[in-house]
Here is the input.
Amino acid sequence: MVQDSLLTDPNSDKTLEHRSEIGRGYALDMPRGPRSKVTLYHRGTPIKQANLADKSERRVFVVELMQKGVNQSHLAKTLKLSRQTLHNYRESYQRFGLEGLLHGYNPDRSISRETQRRLHVEQRRPGSKARELEKMRRQQREQAPQTGEADLGAPHYELQEPPVEALVSEVADKPEEAATTPAAVPEELPYAEDHQGQPTRYAGVFILLFPLLSQWRWLPRICSLFGDGWRLFMVFLLMSALNIRSIEQLKHIRRDEAGKILGLGRLPSLPKIWEWFYTAAQKQRSGRLLDGFFQDQLQRGLVCGLLWFTDGHLLPYTGREKVHYSYHTQRRMPVAGQTNLVTCDERGRIVRFEIQEGKGDLRGGIVDIGEYGRQQLGVAPIQVFDREGHGVDFFARLVNQRIPFITWEKHADTQRLMGLGAERFTHTLELNGKTYQILEEEKSIHHQWLDEAGEEQEHRFNLRRIVLWNQSSNRRASGLCWDDGRELELEMIARGILSRWGASENTFKHIQERHPYHYHPGFGVQISEDQEIANPRCKELATQIQSIETRLGRCRKQLCNTQPRYNKDGTLRANCKHQRLQQEIRELETQQKQLRDEKAGLAERIDVNQLQDYRSFQKIDNEGKNLFDFVTTSVWNARRQLIDWLADVYPKESDRVDLFYAILHSHGWIRSDPNEVVVRLEPLQQPRRRYAQEQLCRKLTGLGAKIPGGKWLRIEVGESPL
Here is the structure.
């Protein structure tokens, strides 16, 4: 029986009896009706089978057929479905994703329908999707005469998301189109859905929108560049606020409650969020977004311009592609990845960041950020960096370009510092519960180098040396400063050094604990422009030279312990051990000299394309990472501003940060009407904390924050309005 069925002609009359053509060369074979197993044929060849008795499988199968462009009238007639049902399937997947299409379906047939509804009540959308889609179509028809556009049908969507590598490479081939693309206009505005008081456990996230909208002009900037892409940035805002480490972890979020507080109506499924991400990433506008954001917050005085702290942070890469190596400071070893150069002000706000390949160029980044600050502020901020930037040549470069700096002194003479008399420490500084004694000295720098013509040049300048004496640990260290004649106070220089490292570090150490700083959504790669590596032949020759040097040392040691042998007539005995060692030493020295000459004639670095057994380096595309870090930076700076506002009503400094996060994680209720969006937070239990919470909410409401579309934002503290 099985052999006969396999040998049956697919085009025989018996086989074609139950086959129905649906266009584009596709046909359905349903021998037992439209609610049984079906075989899909393409130009007479079977390509897929499906069980139409399963509602979930039937919906996915129908959407796939519509994506293939089949005749929808023939498809509806063959499957005994209405055209409206087909449209609902298509738009449900388009608007609500795959989970919205399946509608909380549980394939476990052993569970009753009532049990399934009870288990999936949190995942199901309220009401009927057909009525919701009908309302959306009516709104589109009403808006069509005003915009001159009509809903001509849903766009084409695939059930599986394309890889980010394809999107990045597609846009990377056409950079000029991304630069000349006009500003996008969102079709769907935030908080467009009106509703009465709805409970939400994410109400505290709402406090971040007030400083972002009123001071950083956050949403208007995003909407002008990404249009409806603002929805993705609101999702990233939730992740940054609640320390959600990846998009996949959003599956644990209550979608209705999170969607209401973010102005999305309902948080969609993960495939839909990834679709938003790919759509925003392929526009290649993160550079324009970041440049405008960094420049605007400087010009509006939202970050300070006196002391700028710059440091590099490892962004590890665990993929299979070959990329350049960065350096893991804690593990003290090279690690595949990138380096994120972050610059912060003295209050811990992020001024600017830049992701560089491999280990990155900290010194070049410091010079660039110094020139950037001079262009934006008219005067170069004082750059503070760690010992990695220490070097006479780099100090001379900063002095020549008139960029003031503060740094630790590397290779300081510890014995000399401990030998300084206590009477020389004339200043006292208290920072973070520790007391420091300070003195100032002068250090002369003499820098010599050869110019292009081979002539020797020199540069002499003086630096201010600051010696710090920690009274609690009785340890001393020194720092260097060049202030470009600004005559900075000694305490300010010492505070600038101590505000960056150790127990007093204020930004770089804590940002990774509170935010998903290392998260990189979507890894796309392309060929790197930097294909140079250390010449492997030089390394091989160096190994051989070292091996010969070891053998030479062994032979010379044996030669010292060996005496020459003579014959009875006084002539040197032929082939004695002393003579053999001398001959071996001469041969090794000749061989070593040849290897050294060969090594001297080779280039230290070569391009990997010149080698046969090496793969080309790939460059990680940071478009998605820049979008995510833009939100993380915004949330971090807004956090610093909100904590400063709490200082006016909550004097306990050690508990102020915890109070902020207690408010940020508060539950509450949200109400939206045509004029305003109102959020009410549950009051905190302690009276002092509740008072600070109420005063902060009054402060935020008084900022007059307004979202695109004209709705005002208001936040308050109180009991349940339900």
Observations:
- The mean pLDDT is 84.
- Residues 532-616 form one domain.
- Residues 251 and 686 are 33 Å apart (CA to CA).
